[in-house]
Amino acid sequence: MSSRNTVLSKHQITQKTERIAYEIYENTFEEPIIYIGGIAGNGFLFAERLVQQLKDISSQQVRLFEISISKDKPLKNEIKLSIDESDLTNATCILVDDVINSGRTMLYAVRKLLENELHVLKVATLVNRTHRRFPVHADFVGLNLSTTMKDKIAVDLGKNEAAYLV
Predict the structure, then answer these.
(1) What's the whole-model pTM score?
(2) Angstrom distance (rounded) from CA 64 to CA 60
(3) How many domains does the chain have?
(4) What are the residues whose beta carbons fall under 8 Å from the beta carbon of 11, sequence distance 6 or more?
(5) Residues 6 or more apart from 71 whose CB is under 8 A from it?
(6) At 102, is the secondary structure helix, strand, or coil?
(7) pLDDT tens digits for 102-140?
(8) Which residues of 26-61 are buried (b: 16+ CB within 10 A; e: fewer)?
(9) Does 109 map to a domain?
(10) Do 20 and 52 form a contact (C-beta atoms < 8 A)?
(11) What kind and span of H or E run contains 21?
(12) Can you give the CATH number for the domain in which 67 is found?
C-alpha cells in the first residue's frame, strides 16, 4: 500500500478556495457574467465552491457548468458541456479542475472550449503539479507542488477533506 502525505488540510483548502475566488474576481470584475466550467468529478466540486465564493464577494452573474470527459482516454468518448455551447460566444470562461497532473485532461477540455469564440479563457486549479507531460498553464493556483513523474496527487473533497501526495 502506498503512503499518503498530506499537502493540504481541510482548512488550507478552504483558504486556497477563497483566495482563488478573489483572484478570479480581481481579474474579471468588469465582466457582467463569467462562466465557470468544472471538469466532472472533483473538478466540478471545486468549481461549485469557487462559484459560491464568487457569489459571496461579487455582484457578477456566475454560471456554473460541467465538462464531462474521459480522463484516461479523452478522445474515446465525446467531451460534453452541461450548457448550450452558444452561451459561451464572447464569454469569459474559467476552466476548473482539482489537480493538474499530466495536463492531458485540461488540454482536451481547453480544446473543447476553444470550439467556441470565447472572449477570455483562464484555468484554475487547487493543486498544480510542476512536472507534467502536456503544456498547460494554470492562471489561478492554490498550491504549486514540485513532484516526480511517478508521484500522484489525490484530493478528497468529502468527509476526510484533504489533498495528498501518494
Answers:
(1) 0.89
(2) 13
(3) 1
(4) none
(5) 41, 104, 105
(6) coil
(7) 778 888 899 899 999 999 999 999 988 876 666 678 899
(8) ebbeebeebbbbbbbbbbbebbbbbbebbeeebebe
(9) yes
(10) no
(11) helix 10-28
(12) 3.40.50.2020
